[in-house]
Backbone:
């Protein structure tokens, strides 16, 4: 099966190209990029080629979300690997990495293999399991890193919980580094955050909700930067939410420490001011922060301190959210709004479009050592096409994800994925796109 | 003036006019409680459910008496928050109660925002009888009514609120109410009991009691929760009482005619020394309880369309 995509603005951060071009896909790979490929193929075997005219659209390497929660095994009522992968391709993602906080936790080969099998049965997005750092993510005993890696884990994390034991973190970083497995830190000092429901500040004060101070995140990032420096290893920091964290990471990078970091769309879109409704769709961990933090997150994205945008897609069922704020689960279903929210950074002049695409494809690929994120000839034909101008309104009822928990329901968006191709096969196309 | 609200969720959302209307209505109800036959037929045929998810004696009793003096049928439900664990959510409970067609649901809950959730779900009027550390609007209204009676006004008074501000819904509701009514509000407590950015609420906050009470017209002492000691928010009751207990010496800093208030229940000798608490020339603690019934009668009356 060959596909010829013509006339799109083709952005490939890996090769630093941004030009109108045609792309020919063949046998699941990118065969050729160039101008006027149509006339060259027409002469030979045009009938066997699916030709899609993408004039006015943007074509990029398939987007990669390095931080999702797919809930399977164990919590299938919130999301399954298939429903999460369906949400991914609908949101323009060709590859997703899923965190291990399932039930049971993905802390051994059999769970990792189960996830891989379920993902291949779903045959939608590429799904890369992330294994737990500690057994049951309980922060006590290391998992079998070699075995997890061999089974297909691309990184290690106890996400959802921090590694409170600094010695365990040190050993995990050393051991994982020798296997080239990235370690992803969920940075939260649970003594400082204990009982917390939202960012600590004026709004937690007036709402009477226990605050989660910014230092709960920052002291752990500071600690882990020191451990990464001491052990000369790479550490990736998940869901950065505070100005202090951005400053610590920026400083660490300047000193040559191997730190990478991600943030999520809600941290550069919303602040804690919106919590005055007590709406549980706004409850997320780390919490929505102050306006000053939001500004710093945007600056961190602009100056490269923050390498990646990840969704932290955390689907929940209605029953997990329709509760008192204190009892409601934390998390936002993010796969189907991430691209549109991130495009606002371009609309607001924070990032150029190629820089944004890098943070959503090439950079996560590099952090996770995935052979993805480029449109070079010979690369896997993972491609995202979006219409940067298409206006649409978020309707959680139309989400493919089982998790309808989004604070962006009803928001007017500009820009939407049109076509998602994984391994040369069309996995999603917007119904209005004639193909 | 017509009262337009469906619910009383907090003082933060009330206007000065609404507060005045509630206080004036309450004042007109005071007399009923002094009669031989303490009952009027005003709310006959109305049903009030007191839904308490948190232990309470005086607030629940006060609401029950308020309803009964107006001839409403009052039903008390003491639900445990552990019903959440059993699988029945607040939403299930609310829908069940709604199906029985009450007129007003009074709710107390340990979770801030629970009355707001309830108000979005059911068509009945909701009165917040205290939600977590957020608001306790009826307490603030009865406090304002007491101050107004004793001092003749609220505007221009200096009112000191002392104690654990962080965990106090009474403090928050009073800060909203008293500042709206034109009083100067100052706070004092250990810095671990002053929540972040509290001064943005339009108050001054001090860490020494002696800095807050000079020339105060009203000194409002808050209850200290003994279990806070375990969270290392303060070292011991002994040290707390040495620094933050109101007694016959430090009260001389306040105005000679200053009144002393406390939402109860009092820890004698911790928040207020017994001689001050029982000095009827200063302590208005029982007046507060007395006004509580009238304020709650007024709210039940206004929410059921009594003044239309």
Residues:
């Amino acid at each position: 099966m060959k596909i010829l995509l013509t006339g799109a603005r083709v952005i490939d951060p890996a090769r630093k190209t941004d030009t109108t071009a045609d792309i020919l896909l063949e046998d699941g790979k990118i065969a050729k990029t160039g101008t006027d490929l149509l006339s060259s193929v027409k002469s030979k075997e045009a009938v066997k080629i699916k030709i899609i005219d993408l004039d006015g659209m943007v074509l990029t390497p398939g987007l990669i979300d390095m931080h999702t929660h797919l809930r399977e095994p164990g919590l299938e009522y919130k999301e399954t690997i298939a429903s999460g992968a369906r949400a991914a391709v609908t949101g323009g993602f060709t590859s997703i990495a899923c965190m291990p906080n399932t039930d049971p936790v993905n802390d051994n080969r059999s769970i990792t293999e189960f996830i891989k099998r379920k993902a291949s049965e779903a045959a939608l997005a590429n799904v890369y399991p992330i294994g737990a750092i500690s057994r049951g993510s309980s922060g006590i005993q290391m998992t079998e890193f070699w075995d997890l890696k061999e089974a297909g884990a691309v990184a290690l994390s106890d996400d959802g919980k921090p590694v409170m034991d600094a010695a365990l973190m040190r050993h995990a970083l050393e051991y994982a580094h020798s296997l080239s497995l990235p370690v992803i830190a969920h940075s939260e000092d649970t003594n400082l955050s204990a009982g917390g429901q939202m960012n600590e500040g004026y709004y937690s004060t007036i709402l009477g909700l226990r605050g989660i101070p910014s230092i709960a995140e920052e002291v752990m990032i500071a600690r882990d930067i020191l451990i990464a420096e001491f052990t000369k290893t790479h550490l990736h920091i998940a869901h950065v939410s505070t100005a202090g964290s951005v400053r610590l990471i920026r400083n660490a990078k300047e000193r040559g420490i191997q730190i990478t970091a991600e943030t999520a769309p809600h941290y550069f879109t919303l602040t804690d001011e919106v919590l005055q409704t007590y709406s549980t769709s706004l409850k997320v961990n780390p919490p929505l922060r102050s306006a000053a933090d939001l500004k710093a997150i945007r600056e961190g994205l602009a100056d490269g301190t923050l390498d990646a945008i990840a969704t932290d897609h955390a689907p929940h069922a209605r029953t997990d959210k329709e509760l008192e704020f204190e009892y409601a689960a934390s998390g936002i279903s993010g796969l189907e709004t991430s691209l549109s929210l991130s495009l606002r950074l371009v609309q607001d002049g924070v990032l150029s479009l190629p820089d944004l695409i890098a943070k959503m494809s090439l950079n996560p690929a590099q952090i996770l050592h995935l052979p993805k994120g480029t449109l070079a000839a010979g690369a896997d034909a993972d491609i995202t096409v979006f219409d940067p101008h298409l206006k649409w309104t978020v309707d959680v009822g139309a989400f493919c994800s089982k998790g309808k928990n989004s604070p962006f329901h009803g928001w007017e968006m500009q820009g939407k994925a049109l076509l998602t191709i994984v391994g040369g096969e069309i996995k999603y196309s917007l119904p209005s796109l004639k193909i | 003036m017509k009262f337009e609200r469906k619910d009383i969720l907090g003082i933060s959302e009330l206007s000065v006019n609404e507060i005045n209307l509630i206080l004036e209505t309450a004042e007109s109800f005071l007399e009923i409680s002094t009669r031989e036959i303490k009952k009027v037929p005003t709310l006959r045929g109305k049903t009030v459910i007191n839904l308490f998810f948190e232990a309470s004696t005086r607030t629940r009793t006060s609401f029950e008496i308020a309803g009964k003096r107006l001839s409403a049928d009052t039903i008390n439900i003491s639900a445990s928050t552990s019903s959440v664990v059993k699988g029945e959510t607040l939403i299930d409970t609310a829908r069940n109660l709604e199906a029985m067609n009450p007129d007003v649901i009074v709710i107390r809950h340990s979770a801030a925002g629970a009355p707001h959730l309830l108000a979005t779900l059911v068509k009945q009027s909701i009165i917040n009888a205290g939600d977590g550390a957020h608001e306790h609007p009826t307490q603030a209204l009865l406090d304002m009514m007491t101050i107004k009676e004793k001092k003749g006004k609220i505007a221009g008074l200096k009112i000191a609120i002392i104690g654990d501000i962080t965990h106090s819904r009474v403090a928050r509701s009073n800060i909203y109410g008293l500042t709206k009514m034109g009083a100067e509000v100052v706070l004092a407590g250990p810095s671990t009991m002053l929540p972040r950015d509290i001064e943005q609420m339009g108050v001054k906050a001090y860490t020494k009691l002696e800095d807050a009470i000079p020339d105060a017209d009203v000194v409002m002492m808050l209850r200290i929760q003994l279990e806070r000691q375990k969270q290392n928010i303060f070292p011991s009751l002994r040290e707390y009482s040495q620094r933050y207990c109101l007694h016959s010496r430090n009260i001389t800093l306040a105005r000679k005619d200053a009144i002393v208030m406390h939402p109860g229940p009092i820890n004698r000798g911790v928040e207020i020394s017994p001689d001050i608490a029982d000095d009827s020339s200063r302590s208005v603690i029982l007046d507060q309880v007395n006004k509580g019934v009238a304020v709650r009668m007024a709210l039940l009356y206004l929410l059921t369309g009594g003044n239309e």
